Amino acid sequence: MSHTISVTMEAGVAVQPNELGLIICKSCNEVLATLPTDGYKKFYVVCPGCARKDNNKEASE
Length: 61
Prior knowledge:
3 strands; alpha+beta
């Protein structure tokens, strides 16, 4: 079962003090976005760059 999370990020957005949720790429460990949560939480997804690399690697095999 596969779930897709779509995140829209804007450049120059200031992180609020209560944004304790992190969205992290599980391939390259880059922090993609933050979320306002009640506690510290990490969500792992695959960023678009790593997804393209994975698709290109699968296509060449």
